[in-house]
Every structure is written in structure tokens, then in C-alpha cells.
Amino acid sequence: MSPALPDGESVPQDGSLPSWVASGADSRGFGVYVHVPFCSVRCGYCDFNTYTATELGGGASQVNYADTSLKEIDLARHVMDRAGLPSRTANTVFFGGGTPTMLPATHLAKILGGIKDAWGLTEGAEVTTEANPDSVTPEYLRTLAQAGFTRVSFGMQSAVPHVLATLERTHDAARIPDVVSWARDAGLDVSLDLIYGTPGESLVDWRTSVETALETGVEHISAYALVVEQGTKMAAQVRRGELELPSEDDQAEKYELVDDLLTAAGFEWYEVSNWAKRVDGRLKACEHNLAYWRGDDWWGIGPGAHSYLGGPGTGDTEPDAGMRWWNVKHPIRYAALLESGESPAAGRERLTPAEAHLERIMLQIRLSEGLSIAALSSEARQRVAAHIASGLVEPKPAFAGTLKLTRTGRLLADTVIRDLTD
Fold first, then answer.
1. Residues 381, 273 share a domain
2. Angle 284-289-295 (CA atoms, 0-180°, nearest 5)?
3. How far is residue 361 from each of residues 111, 293, 371, measured CA to CA in Å?
4. Residue 207: how many CA atoms within 13 Å on its side-chain side?
5. What total of structural domains would you count in the chain?
6. Distance between CA 121 and CA 333 in Å, rounded?
7. Residue 87 phi, psi dihedral angles, 5° rounding
8. Which of 92, 197, 365, 420 could pair with 380 in a Cys bridge, judged by C-beta atoms 3.0 to 4.6 Å apart?
9. Does residue 148 fall inside a structural domain?
10. Does 377 lie in the same domain as 286?
């Protein structure tokens, strides 16, 4: 069961936004996220807003999902126009889920076509879809590339069969080199997502997964520590003693191993859990995720999707610096609202300048480019020296005014963030 939506203020039926969200928009990028909530099975560790095909029907079915998404895209364009937002093309588009590639490639192309019609795409825009290795064929990937997709991110997770079984992943690890080759032949950039810290995964298992990913020749790899969320099947297995979670030391050792292996292979870390290679001098980072971390605007399409448009400006009663909102979670309710001409938004919140500033600090600290120490409060700036002494912050950049985490600092990023934002 995916987590409950946050509380928030109500949203007008037509989705209208206050005019102050348009303030400064010309200086911010704009991206589009499309949530496709379908999976063939629900993995035991997953708490995302996903559904299997047999759970849904009507306007929420896979067959009708592209047309339903187009309704929200049309609504979004009109809402943004009424709020006075300037005309901006989308710098990035990201299809996530769920498994977007559970839909036919022509349906993903149809949704992307709706985005192009509504906003247009910036020249060289990054257009990514997530995919499971067992959900694509060479023809499928060629269709995506022909439609304007530029990048695919495969949920590899592991190369070790017993680890995949514990995660309840459906693909065969031996398929990974094939799907990477098919994607590259189609002209798509490729990323592989890995998970470390699965119950029963040894350090040798983890090394095997990382080395297998490297052997494919991809230019982007993400490695995330497994987090077992309450309410998931895996959380119940852990509670019953059927699975044993790894120690923090085990997690740290695996992070250090992936960082060592990727660095030796010519990758650079650019966010705590993400590494990329340079091609023709350009780091092949995920531009869509960087847009989130740097505070750009985005509209989230789909059930449970979140959106954000910034400010700052003057709200009804106090200064505001951004508006965040989220759609209803269930696809049937989502489809019904759009069919009736109403916004699918379930709630929203206004961020004050102080709240927006705090979020920016929390996100930018995680980036290799670092954070300007001047952005911290005077009290927090005085604590930076202690983090340098503890080996969590790079000394040379700090003396020049930029806070950058060391590798140990990356392992303890949440601790650093808490200390510098309290």
C-alpha cells in the first residue's frame, strides 16, 4: 500500500492557481512528469502508487490511460495560461511509475505528442522513460526513439538471481546486456538503476551487480539503499522474522564499493545516489532529476503525481514562494474527475520563502556542485567548521565559500542536513 497523501488546502474544481506563481518563471526551467501506475506484479518492497492490470477498468485501464493523460495535459495548459505563466517549452519529460512500458509504445508516444502540442520541447530536451528489462523489445525501443524519447532508465536492481527473487523482480538478469544493446542501437541514452542492502545480499553479490552493470557500457548508474517502508509486504516479512535487514555498516560498505568501482571506471558522482560519465565533455546526468534538485517548475501528470510551480510573489495574505499540489491517488477517481472536466488535484500547499529556501538547502547539499555557504543561516555557517574537522565537508571548497560533501559526508548526508538546517 502506497503512503497516504499529505494534508493540504483544497483546490478549486478547475485547478486554478494564484497569479503569483508566475513571478520569476522566466528564470526557471519547466519539466513534465508522467506517472504511469501499472505493473505486472507489485514488488514486496515497493510503496509507490501502482496497480496491476486486473485491478482497474473503465477510464483508468491501460487501454484508455493515454487519452486520460491527455485530458490532464490539456487542463494543465489552460490552468497555467490563466495564471499568467509565460510560454515555456519543456526542458525535460520523465515517464515514471509503475512501469510505463506496460503501455504500448504508441501510447507513450501519444502522451509525449500531447506534451509537445501543449508546451513544445526545448531543442535537445531530455525525454526519459523508466522500463523493466522484461517489458521492452527492440521494436518497442525504436518506436520510442522515433517518437522523440532520448533516454531509457532500466530497473536492473541486481544481477544476482536470489537477490532479484527476494525483491520479487520478474526479469532475468541475463537479459540486461540485451536490453541495453537494443536501446543504444535505437539511439537512446541508457541508465541502470541498482538497489543495495536487500536482505541476504552479500558484498560479493553487490560487487557482481555493479560489475555486471559496468560491463554493459552504460553512461549513467543510480545506486539506492533499500528502504523498507511500513505497510509493504517486505516490512511484514521483516517484522515476522522471515527476512533480516542489513546493518548500517553493511550499507556503508556497499556504498563505498559502488563508489570505488564507478570512479575507477570513469564515472563521477553528481548526486549522493547517482553517477555519470562525461561524453564530449558533457556529464550524462539525468537532467530531469537535476531540475527537481535545483528548484525548477514541473507539472506532474497522473494519479498521485505531484507538481510544483514557484514564486516568489505576494499571496492572498502573506508572501509565498511556491505552490505544490498532488493528484488523487486512485486511477479510477483520477479518470472520473478528468472525464467530468474537473481538476484531479486532491490538495495543495503554499511554501513561504523560508520553507522554499530550506528545501533548496536540503536538496543542493546532496549535489556534487555543492551549496553556497552564504545560503546558510549565521548559526549554521558557524557549524561548518566542525563538519570539516569531522571529515564530512571538503575543506578547500568550503574555504572558498561552497559546501561540498566528502564521501563520508555523503554517507551521513541526512545528519549534515539536519545539523545545518535546524
1. no
2. 125
3. 34, 10, 7
4. 6
5. 2
6. 30
7. -70, 120
8. 420
9. yes
10. no
DSSP for residue 352: P
What CA–CA distance (Å, rounded) separates 262 from 268?
Answer: 8
The answer to whether residue 260 sits within a structural domain is yes
d(CA 316, CA 350): 11
CA angle 80, 83, 84 (to 5 degrees): 95
Task: Please name the residue that has the C-alpha cell 486532491.
Answer: 346
CA-closest candidate to residue 111, choices 97, 124, 123, 3:
97
Q: What are the strands, taking DSSP E only, across 169-296?
A: 189-196, 220-225, 268-271, 274-276, 278-279, 282-283
Residue at a domain's end among 291, 308, 333: 291
Cell triple for 63 = 487501454
Nearest residue to 354 via CA among 319, 381, 405, 383:
319
The candidate with the shortest Cα–Cα distance to 333, out of 100, 102, 51, is 51
Give the residue numbers spanning the domain of 415: 373-421
One domain, residues 151 and 272: yes
Answer yes or no: are the C-beta atoms of 32 and 93 closer than 8 Å: yes
Is residue 116 one of the residues assigned to a domain?
yes
Dump strand ranges (E) for 98-255: 121-131, 151-157, 189-196, 220-225
Reading the chain (422 residues) residue by residue, the pLDDT tens digits are 455 667 689 999 999 999 999 988 999 999 999 999 987 666 655 555 666 666 665 556 788 999 999 999 999 999 999 999 999 999 999 999 889 999 999 999 999 999 999 999 999 999 999 999 999 999 999 999 999 999 999 999 999 999 999 998 888 899 999 999 999 999 999 999 999 999 999 999 999 999 999 999 999 999 999 887 777 777 788 888 888 888 999 999 999 999 999 999 999 999 999 999 999 999 999 999 999 999 899 999 999 999 999 865 444 444 567 899 999 999 999 999 999 999 999 999 999 888 888 888 999 999 999 999 999 999 999 999 999 999 999 999 999 999 999 999 999 999 999 999 87
pTM above 0.90, yes or no: yes
Angle CA 51–105–346, to nearest 5: 40
CB of 204 closer than 8 Å to CB of 162: no
For CA atoms 131, 135, 140, 143, the dihedral sign is negative
136 exposure class (CB count in 10 Å sphere: 0-12, 13-18, 19+): buried
CB 286 within 8 A of CB 274: yes
